[in-house]
Q: What sequence folds into this?
């Protein structure tokens, strides 16, 4: 086919010259990613972060394509070009099962975007499956096995999913650009230049070790400063409580929800199929929440309004072991009239910036191997004191969310509020 | 108040230190701008262009604030600081009446975003009106008069709306960033540095003349290459035809539309009030269109699907005087089975890159005045041969849109398609 | 050879994977370009513009390499890969004969950097010649013929020297980056993507027409705002007058110059050979000028100090036909004690932003051809109204330089200064 | 005075609106900084890094000016505006005593750029002293005391010199830009926004803690990847050996050096005064080295050529305690004919990324204090686990440099070379 180009702020032009890729992009299921924001609720604190999973998926494909082009040219002995299309397709489709506000939504409705990804790829009813089947009858299941890590080829697996993969490399750069933070910037071109296939995976030439370090630091910083931002987590807590209230109300108010949020009914009824799932996107959910503002139920109405019009909960951090104290303080919140089932929430976010492979752990990481001048491999943290110091640690915090009202001056509830505030110092529970 | 900051990829940090501004941003009507894309259908061709009128409005406010800070400090004799808040508020609210896909929507439903802007500001039912009224009882109407150009102070008017104003300066930079094109880049800081109030308006010191030239060239290029892009206009034509079909069907299918698109009913009924209008946004309309895909009406369903899943019409350019030939060719389109009422459309886009003030014309432009070393003013095009050559011209094209099918090979309709194609060369009608 | 990389702010990494290229870069004559600033005296007004002809030459090579890689892959039928190395080498060496402050120096000493480029390439005493001869005995002369435009292959010629060539594309981006102006930015990757070889030269696909327009506008703006900046031209006038004075003094003060500026002696004696020429660079000349500050000759000393310590002449623009008036005003300058031979100067700078091929003119331009959808070629300005309006015009100005003193208040020379100033308004001669 | 602007790629426009600042910039001693590269020999590996101490000094001034403007406006109670000019001048002049290739030059000739800075500011023979004295008779000594840290006001001191000061903030951004690396990028505007004066120094609001972390990481990375780059250190070793050889030869070859390097004579004679020192710059030294290539002494000639034409030594890293082994290997180098006095060298570079104040150490650091929500101060590493892990550590390496020849294949010296190479693995001594 004649090459097509997508203009992209991160990568310049994204070239598509394989009809399978082009048709996948034009499929109904993939176009749907245009309507799902990459960063969910983060736009409440970074107003520029409106970018979608569509452009991220294109970006991940583009990085995969760049890598493969180099592998085919320079490492033909060790990279099997039969895996090239598989890798590009897997990169393009790795997020195809993501839905609106996935993480929160999954908590409430027990959906699983990874299972849905598998289903979209392998179910016979999707346009995507039908396009993939043109390659070969078992191509859909091959793609699915790459995405769920069960495919035998570790080179392909690691390109798609490892501590330094096409997904992470694209989203760090993209989220950095759209949030307007500099933290996520790293030298993609340098990393791509030193990336190499090895017998059973991927490694990086020693000449690019610092670029890999820089990538890991960027990732650490993006987690700490963007992905774990207290305000967007506040919106997640509100959303979670809002959906919890709707679920609670549904049995009593079926008509209200049927007319104001028809596509959610299968979820309330717990009879969801793929078609139902594909009907949801950010715009659909927000449309429903806007209509819920007019509900008779004060809690549903108020939380919907808080979510739509960005009225945030406040929060403090706490340590493990302080849960009892939080329960005490919850009474102060109830004392001034809030139902703590819907007006408070705990939210924990932790990230492992890097770890070497530890087979004994529950989720062993694929370590980053550096190819040294003499041809031997060395694990990254053994060479880099900086990465050594980050390695294996979990960084993040536990936060408790509560109504802003608790911090406002108020004659009526002096005691409850006073007690509550006396336990918070510098946004920490004491 | 303690200063608040919004992080913005274009301006770094946008500072808010006036409670009126902060409360306006938090108002329901302003938060709604988060759900309206700045560039409407352009994301179909620039996938990164998902930015909203919310961040653009903040950006316009920020530029206004920067200008005013300088005017207050360096031109206290000629800039009346009583106008400072008025200017910042007007910058913030200049787009407050914009709705989803405004330009297309207005064509079909006879709404007017400028009148709605006035209404949101002056109507007593809005949060915005109530916040503005805290400044003084007539402050809302002052703001409204700046936005509709009837305010007597030409300095304020020109900052908000002229050939080089805070709105245009922000959107060029922002649209350039989010589309990933370089064309719209110009030296904002240089222009802000040479901008001065004069007795009856705004002028620019001769030291910044080249930066002003560069701004005008950027604007010209953004029109030619982004705003007038044939593909996003294709989406506008599809949207227009889709809404036309819905209006046509409504009297026969009231129930269908009432359950699938409740917030549009007042528009179909032509009984719209402000509250109705404020219920619409991009997500709401897209949600409706997604449900229309399941309509029994083939045309409504097909156009809704084309809009949602990005199946574009093709187009050619034509000259005035060729309308007769277009009508001829429309018969070929009908011959292969398309209803040309819904499957074709003309779309004309023209822009005047710059003009001096010409009182005899229907829309005289506020010319750009350059303050020379000796203190005299000179109109820009009299000093710049490049601007002289652009000045007064209208650049753009007329395009006719039609189904892609007309260009595909096909045994059945060889004659109609052959005749049609014989009149197109290099995407021009011949 | 194993690929080597040069890190470059403009292009990221510049890859060298041919030993001829790598050895050329390491040659004595090429390393010398590290000591010659790309923009000569422009750093007096853009303090960041310290970049050298070395990095520009690498950049031109890099663009050539990118183009050729694409030509070899996609246009193997029309691009003869035997020309690939020739093109890359010519790009790398196109400026090899440039010396310190070339344009001014050539005026005074009748050297010619184009002839010197030929000589460095074809003379048997240079490292460059010896490296090139390893390719084939006639390779040096082939390279020389590309650079002087006499080579028969128009594809190669146009890549190296035409209205849109690797030289211009690199220097616009590079000069823009290092001066910190945005004007020279254009979309290199877009242009490279649409550039194609044709039977007798180079053309550009219609899909990139706007990017080519943008490049021409960038070029126009860089000329107007950077290359023709009055302050750097002031430094050129001072340098010219300084060297003129030195030439005048040399016969009387041979010892002074021999001990303070040995490498200039062959130039004063007008017996220059290539070895002499290669000894000069910016640092050597500046070292000499610094020592001239201590000369007994007041004019030599003062001009050397003005050049080294950046004390600029002032200037006004004038029109052709006003030379008589300038001669009149020169008397005012003499009246207050300045020798106008050394304290004034005319400096004219004009640029042709674009022109189509006009065989009847003295320097016919290679026009830019656009390859249309139907395969026909169209000359750029016939398609672009904006380029049409710029086409064929010469933009620039004539300036007269004089001592700043003429503008300062002064009791003693009121009449002469008063008369002088009365003829200047807004920096123009009236 | 009317404001003047310097265009700068890092900060946009640098505004000067105080005549003392403007006159200092135009002084002979400050203009000299135009001829001294900020990064010395780093341009051998980063060809874009040609930027000068002139633009860096302007940049440091600009950051100081931005901070002070904010301090005067928002912290008038704690920032004494009498210190504003002092701070800006100190920022501008902090590097005024730097000479060509300072660090290497100082090793050989026992000069001290810090003492020279003091001297330029306080000696009565400089233009700078004379300009500063216009402020008040003791102003020069005040400026000098800020720069040597003896001034009593800790706010001023810390702005000019601490772990996060105007010098470091400018050079990280600037060196990053000109080398074309991304590592040095951090969010200057964010840091400036949270910087506050406190009773006895400077602190940073908790809202900017992550930006401060990011700055420290950037600094760490610039040290590891740019400042400590093995290739530029190779050039330093060559330079050091070259100057050592010249010093050794001088007593025997006074005429040669007097005619080819007159400005160095006072240094060889060890009778240096300020005027002598100010005559040197990069161009002067390079001019001399170019003439030394023609020396009769093979070592001087060869090293001069190596420095000018970038023929690097190779290196390996070693640990403390391996010096004996290095001496062993030196014999292999001598065995093949190199004088190891001039053809080898050790070069150690270590950096302390951050430390809290430790009064017991030899060079206690000014710790970075974070101002918490409740008004208390906390030392940075107590809040940030990442900084905690970097804190107090020294990062860098010891390197031994030797002729590239030792690694080349060679029949004649198989044994010596073989033995030598057997002790190097992955560029480490084993």
A:
């Amino acid at each position: 086919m004649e090459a097509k180009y997508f203009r992209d702020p991160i990568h310049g032009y994204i070239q598509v010259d394989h009809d399978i890729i082009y048709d996948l992009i034009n499929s109904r299921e993939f176009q749907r990613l245009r309507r799902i924001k990459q960063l969910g609720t983060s736009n409440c604190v970074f107003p520029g972060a409106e970018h979608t999973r569509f452009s991220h998926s294109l970006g991940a494909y583009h990085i995969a394509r760049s890598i493969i082009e180099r592998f085919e040219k320079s490492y033909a002995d060790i990279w099997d070009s039969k895996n090239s299309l598989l890798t590009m397709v897997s990169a393009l489709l790795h997020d195809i099962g993501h839905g609106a506000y996935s993480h929160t939504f999954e908590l409430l409705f027990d959906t699983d975007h990874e299972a849905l990804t598998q289903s979209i790829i392998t179910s016979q009813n999707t346009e995507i499956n039908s396009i993939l089947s043109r390659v070969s009858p078992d191509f859909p299941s091959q793609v699915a096995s790459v995405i769920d890590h069960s495919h035998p080829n570790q080179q392909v697996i690691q390109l798609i999913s490892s501590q330094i993969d096409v997904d992470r490399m694209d989203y760090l750069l993209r989220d950095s650009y759209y949030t307007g933070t500099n933290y996520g910037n790293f030298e993609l071109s340098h990393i791509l230049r030193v990336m190499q296939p090895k017998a059973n995976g991927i490694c990086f030439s020693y000449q690019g070790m610092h670029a890999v370090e820089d990538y890991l630091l960027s990732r650490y910083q993006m987690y700490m400063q963007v992905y774990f931002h207290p305000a967007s987590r506040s919106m997640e807590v509100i959303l979670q409580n809002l959906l919890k209230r709707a679920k609670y109300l549904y049995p009593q108010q079926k008509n209200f929800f049927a007319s104001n949020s028809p596509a959610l009914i299968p979820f309330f009824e717990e009879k969801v199929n793929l078609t139902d799932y594909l009907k949801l996107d950010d715009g659909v959910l927000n449309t429903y929440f806007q209509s819920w503002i007019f509900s008779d139920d004060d809690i549903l109405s108020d939380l919907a309004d808080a979510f739509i019009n960005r009225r945030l909960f406040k929060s403090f951090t706490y340590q493990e072991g302080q849960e009892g104290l939080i329960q005490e303080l919850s009474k102060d919140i109830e004392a001034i009239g809030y139902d703590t089932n819907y007006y408070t929430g705990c939210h924990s976010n932790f990230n492992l910036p890097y770890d070497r492979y530890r087979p004994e752990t529950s989720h062993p990481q694929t370590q980053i191997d550096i190819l040294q001048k003499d041809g031997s491999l060395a694990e990254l943290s053994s060479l880099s004191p900086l990465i050594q110091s980050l390695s294996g640690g979990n960084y993040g915090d536990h936060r408790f969310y509560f109504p802003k009202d608790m911090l406002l001056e108020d004659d009526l509830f002096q005691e409850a509020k006073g007690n509550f505030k006396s336990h918070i110092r510098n946004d920490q529970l004491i």
Remarks:
- Chain D has a mean pLDDT of 95.
- The CA atoms of residues 39 and 49 of chain D lie 7 Å apart.
- Chain D touches chain A through 28 residues (CB under 8 Å).
